[in-house]
């Protein structure tokens, strides 16, 4: 069985490839990337594939049995990009698609993100190709990436209020994807994947304070004010506004789940927040 992974040189894709190599022969894995030269270190076959260039996709998917469609990061363009991949997969005879969606996509208050995932899930259903939906929750790194800046500034800012966040690390989600890709009996299932233990951003700030020995409080800001802070530290306007909007969704428990489907799937507890904070501080 040949397994292909899109976005294979991205943060998640690289981890999925590494986990897959522990379960199947590297010769059975294909990395789908815009620039195959960037995938030389993956140790698997690399093929050129671009979500926005349909003419590259059918050729790249030739002989592929199972495909991991890693969702694009191009918000506003993803539904079309994903449909290009699905259409090419159908033409190429791909037997199963595994898709990385969003936690509780059909009911999520993170509407800007959710709408495109819901559209992709609908396109998969319409395609008739057997598929698995991995509704990934938030990556812990989405927040711990701000840890060094918070330590420097002496405060962790956000707009998530008291919202509970059931995040997990990229490595946790990558392992789940590898389990599904290398296993059997998952077709037709929708997995709501999230970390075992929820925290608030105040709790995250407390963990940073504990590990650094410094007082790093959490400061909750109105959405517009938080977006302005993000723009002030150099983020593009669109990205800053999107992050602030996602935090508002988090304040409504849009990133919370206590079903423990992720830890059940990977057969171990998800990575504790303390470990992720320690890794961010070390980095």
TrEMBL record:
Keywords: Oxidoreductase
Domain of life: Bacteria
Cited Gene3D superfamilies: NAD(P)-binding Rossmann-like Domain, UDP-galactose 4-epimerase, domain 1
One Gene Ontology MF term: NAD(P)H dehydrogenase (quinone) activity
EC numbers, comma separated: 1.6.5.2
CDD domains membership: TMR_SDR_a (cd05269)
NmrA-like domain: residues covered: 2-244
Keyword Nucleotide-binding: no
Signal peptide: none
Entry-linked PANTHER family: NMRA-LIKE DOMAIN-CONTAINING PROTEIN, QUINONE OXIDOREDUCTASE 2
Protein name in the entry: NAD(P)H dehydrogenase (Quinone)
Organism: Pseudochelatococcus lubricantis
